[in-house]
Structure formats: structure tokens, C-alpha cells
Specification:
With 151 residues, the protein is α+β, with helices and mostly antiparallel strands. It contains three helices and 13 strands. A hairpin with a 2-residue loop joins β11 and β12. It is globular, with a radius of gyration of 16 Å. The protein starts with a strand and ends with a helix.
Amino acid sequence: MEDLYIGGVLPHRGRRVEFLYPASVRWSCARCGRCCRDAEGRERRVLLLDGDIRRIEATGAEGFHETTGEEPFTGVMLKRGGACVFLTPHGCSIYEDRALLCRTYPFWVERQDDAYVIHVDAGCPGVGEGPKLDEGFYGGLLGRALAEMDP
């Protein structure tokens, strides 16, 4: 996959938010669950926002995270046997309430100076499949992330 990025602009809370997103990426979730567990050479680490923790606790879940001080995140998801504690043979047991990083994977947002860069994990089996993603897709992803990171 090429490391080319395209610039986009997202109106957010009365200002223009500039962002870069990967060009020519196709993606469709394969629902394989590989993103929910460690893989050879890659330890899966899901950081949690306060909102993630509150939403997951509202499902009745307890003891699923440890505290971290990696702003804006306040927790890190626990694993059992290298897999997320919520991963079952049938998928995610809290799918509708899962963490922001789980909802945006294989994409993640990084702040660089005055812009945001959206990255993609090329190791995801769904990358290269499905429709070609456009600025609207990435703008929507960034908008949801910003709303949750800065409520």
C-alpha cells in the first residue's frame, strides 16, 4: 500500500479542522476478530476514553480496564489469553457499546501540529477489500473521534 495522503477539511464546532487521510484505500470489515487479539509481532492495546469506560460500565461490565495516564485516554482494556475480555466465539459481547478505538479500527487518528492524520493498519484483512474510501468516510470518522475525545 502506498503512503500517499490527501488533504481534507472538516467543519467542527464552528471551525475548520484540517486532516490528511490515506489515498486509494479500499476497506470492508471481514468480521474476523483479528483486531480483538494479539498477533505475532503485534500486541493489541486498546486505550479507553472516559466516555468509553462509562458506556461499557453501563452494560454491567466490571474489571475490564486498568488506569493509564496517556491523555486523552484514561484506561486500557484488559485481555485474557491475548484477546479482549469481551471477545467471544460469536464476536464482541459489547459490540454496540465498544470503545472508540474498536469502532474506528483499522483506522486511528493522530494529532500533528494543527492538523490530524488518519492512519490505516495495512495488516487488517479487510484492507484492500470493499469500496474505495473517500473524504466523506474519513471526515465522518474524524468527526466522531473528535466528538468523543473532546465532548
